[in-house]
Input
Amino acid sequence: MSSDHVALGDVATFTNGVAFTSADWHEHGSRIIRIQNLTDATKPFNRTTRQVPERFHVRPGDLLVSWSATLGVFAWQGPDVALLNQHIFRVRPNRAVVDKRYLRHAIGAVLRKAERHLHGATMRHVNKSDLLAERFYCPSLEEQARAAGVLDAVDALRAGRQRALELCDELTRSVFLDMFGDPVGNPRGWELRRLGDLLSGIDSGRSPRCLDRPARPGEWGLLKLGAVTRGVYDADQNKALPEGFAVDRRCEVRAGDLLFSRKNTPDLVAATALVTSTRTRLLLPDLVFRLVLAEDSGATAEYLHAALTHPALRKRVQALASGSAASMVNISKGKLVGLSLPVPPLGLQQRFAALLHRVRTQREAQAAHLAKLDELFDSVRQRAFEGTLWDA
Output
């Protein structure tokens, strides 16, 4: 290994957070930074008046690494000092040898590589000693700054495309509210019907032991929960089925399917995704329902997806879940079919579906551009940390 390569633990200090509990939470006090606050700016903060040592204080601009469940590296954007929760490292670089912006990209590259070291069956995490032992190319501070500038520029382009995707989603929600109103308050007085009365059935599959990789072209795969968790169908979130598995083709995912996650953590359960297109040979797992609309239901899949995705109605659906709030909760078919929701006139729903199709076309174009930028970023980052970024 070249002398220009160093271990993460040699150029920065990684401090794990405090194991705050619900007993520490208060209406006032310092904000507690949890992983969800790093991955979703809309998530509320828990606060505490508990006093903790200074090493657990996070200041604006500090680097943070989520090392459990969701891996990522972030710069704290808060306007004030906050407190570090468990499962997050605060990273303090040795500025004499490493540029903070360069270090952030280096950690991102290492996290992608370190995914193969993930431990745990349900709450997977990175082992700290493995992470700190990972080595990366660390040239002069001047060269680090130049490389970080290039990586920041490409990353800014990615952020712009990501924002465009978010605007498409915001437009969809805005159009839905303008046409139908809040599906819980039902200000237009639409007819209320049970979800079960709109369906001809609810399908679910099986969850056998799979291979630890996605299905290759032509192979059968099983959807993971991540395929629906974000509310947008992601066919890449799958695992290959073992050779010789007895496939039930009735459980194959098809375009037009409306998928619903019946089991997940309390925050993520009841995610709904509409399959507009998909690769072949993907099966439903037993943790995901397929809601099959009856032909004479008077409802469209587009309307039903948007309604179930609306935060107020989704919260009501999540309240149907049973199980420990600290782990996975489950929504039974019996409770789900009893859900009451407004059903506007079919013609209005069809107008919404047509508008949604146009927005979706734009969203798919933005997503394609983002995918190309992701590839470019990965290529530039790889070259940066191989020391070949400036090679002809």
